[in-house]
Design a protein that fits this description.
Blueprint (H helix, E strand, L loop, with lengths): L8 E2 L12 E2 L5 E4 L11 E4 L18 E9 L4 E8 L4 E6 L15 E6 L11 E7 L3 E2 L5 E2 L2 E7 L6 E4 H5 L8 H5 L11 E5 L15 E9 L18 H4 L6 H4 L4 E5 L9 E10 L7
Parallel strand pairs: 1-2
Antiparallel strand pairs: 3-4, 5-6, 6-7, 7-8, 9-12, 10-11, 12-13, 14-16, 15-17
């Protein structure tokens, strides 16, 4: 007896001998959907997948020379494929196929979009670039006044050089300073190594001294970058102890107690790049405990 089978759905979890007549254990290069022809009863029709479409104008963006694709990442949210290209001439790049024209300056369904090209992408023709994509809810207005309510970020590594990340929208529009390019592409920002300095002073407009009765204050900071990421905590400052502690002999004079009631701090910023948008000031009582 010949068993009739009408495979319409994929089921890899059961033994092949237990498959229902409308199930299949594997499927390659097919799609299952509804056939609009006819009057009904055509759900689950198997069709071959569509073939490749030539990009007649697309590869003109890559220029001449030997090129090798060494990695890719898919953006299912906006239907974009990003791929990493090694250039034998030494200038590697990241390109995108964007058929729905989501990206600024998109090449559309018959072209490629250049995302980022730089000699600082150091992978070679034999490298394998592992990449992942995520989205950060930050508004970005492109040069053509398109408002993007979330920004795609690609994090990638070739398992040899430092891990990197790309803000896709800013990279396409070259919205960064070439002198700060490493801060733009590196996933792990440099840790500030210069500690905060400062000195005590007296504010005569304040009649209290919040520094009395505690074991001093210690300070540190974190740099905050344009893409919203933060550096590690900087080197710690010395513990600031009111000088009055060394000269106080138990007098009950309020004026003496209220001296040295403020600290003027200096946050070293000479090595801040243009990618640094602000910094977070951290402090704690004494030289232990949590920062706040």
């Amino acid at each position: 007896m010949i068993e009739k089978r009408y495979p319409r759905k994929l089921n890899k979890s059961v033994d092949s001998r237990l498959l229902a007549p409308d199930e299949m254990s594997d499927a390659i290069n097919i799609s299952a959907g509804e056939d609009a022809r006819g009057e009904g009863g055509n759900a689950g029709v198997l069709k071959p997948v569509k073939s490749n479409t030539p990009l007649n104008q697309g590869f003109a963006e890559l220029g001449e020379g030997n090129k090798n694709v060494v990695g890719k990442v898919m953006c299912d949210k906006y239907n974009v494929i990003y791929f990493f290209v090694n250039d034998g001439a030494g200038t590697n790049g990241i390109y995108a196929y964007d058929p729905d024209e989501y990206l600024p300056g998109s090449g559309g369904p018959n072209g490629l979009t250049k995302v980022y090209v730089s000699s600082k992408l150091s992978y070679n023709a034999s490298s394998f670039v592992k990449a992942d994509i995520t989205y950060i809810p930050r508004n970005y207005v492109s040069e053509d006044d398109t408002l993007y309510e979330d920004v795609p970020f690609i994090f990638f590594t070739d398992n040899n050089s430092q891990p990197k990340k790309i803000n896709v929208l800013r990279a396409i529009e070259s919205d960064y300073d070439e002198n700060s390019e490493l801060d733009f592409i590196l996933a792990c920002h440099k840790t500030p190594v210069h500690e905060i300095t400062g000195e005590f002073g007296t504010n005569t407009e304040v009649n209290t001294n919040e520094f009395l009765g505690i074991e001093g204050f210690q300070f540190a900071y974190q740099t905050v970058y344009r893409d919203g990421s933060e550096s590690a905590i900087s080197s710690y400052s010395d513990v600031f102890v009111p000088p009055g502690y060394l000269t106080y002999y138990g007098q009950a004079d309020v004026q003496i107690l209220n001296q040295n009631n403020q600290i003027s701090l200096i946050v070293p910023h000479d090595d801040f790049s243009s990618e640094v948008e602000s910094f977070k000031l951290l402090m704690r009582r004494g030289d232990s405990g949590s920062w706040f």
